[in-house]
Amino acid sequence: MSPDSSDTGVGALVRDRRLQVVVGCVVLIAVLVGLISALRQPATAAQPVNVSAGQPMQPSAFGPLVSRGKPVVCSKDNSQVPGPNAITSGVYAQWSFWGAADNALPAWCAIHIGVGPSRLMVVWYSEYDEDNAQWQSNGRMPQSYTLSVSANSTDGHDGDWKVVATVTGNPVHIRESAIPFAGDGWVRMTITQAQDHPTQDSMLIDQIDCYDISTPALAKNTALFQGDSITALSYDHSTGDQSFDMLMHGYDSRLFPSMLDEGMGGWSSNAAVDHIDKWLALNPDVNYWLLEWGSNDAFSMEDPAVFRANMQIVINKIKAAGHTPVLARIPPSINGGSGQGQLTAEIEALNQQIDALTQANHLIPGPDLYAVIGKDPQGLLQSDGIHPNGNGKKAINNAWYLAMRDVMRANLS
Prior knowledge:
By secondary structure, this protein is an alpha+beta fold. It contains 11 helices and 15 strands.
């Protein structure tokens, strides 16, 4: 707001605004202190969920996403904010999490899915990272954990439990595992060790999503997004009902693909080549690898031939692992200053290589993010002229949705 020259009105307004800011800061500090205190102090055990052993799964309003809204029971030494059901609420980050301090480990939470699926993909997310625009964790995430299933538990505590997946040395803040589930009704995640961190002493998980992948078609309709910081920012579930998975479900109620966000800020196609083997090992069960690489190559004026060679290596490795790569055209950047013309020409040259790679490798055509963002770069990009703002994120999610919706629906026929 631009101030006028009247001290009687504006001066008082300024003083009032300052007071509001001070009060707001005090309230915010009090809220944060309360959250930290709740996290550090063990809570009482959640009330058991009493169900009949072998109870059939209730149909999910989210199609293949069968865990959304389902009951959760956690071990007694956990601190839950706002409660154990936070991990099936569909709220990502926003201080809605399952938390456990180091001295509370091992700690577990169990989700009652109900009997029905024969196989699940279990995906957990944690956005409480010091730099959450990085898929590789810098925060206090699970390092070692198991996934177990039970066919006869009635409350998450009792019954027989079988370990179906064991993970050690986990380096990331989002991870998937495919597990057998035939005849079972409960899935439980038990965390035995958290990642080391100098200033954080509690593990936080904001959501656990369980997808029914019992059939080849359901298993095929799984996706992860990989690329640089543009990808990292676009697929953090901050776009609500305009996210890729929600748009897909709105198009066909039988669809609800996974949406793993594996963006790494500042990385280029050279880094993609260096790390693709590791990424494939960490994500063996996801079919569609939706790739957005090239913006950082453009900033470094990478030789288009080198970019193409790098992306061909990535494509070959993804296909050899039995997955399906799809390439997006690079969006424009408008922060080039006096070198804007050269930057634009470089992006266009790299996009020509993406077009050639898509054709030569017989790939599904990905979205043209150059055209999508190029329609209104001032309105869809942040002030840095590179990264998408809120509307830009929605536009990118929508572009990927339009590129993949008929492909995914066809898998079900």
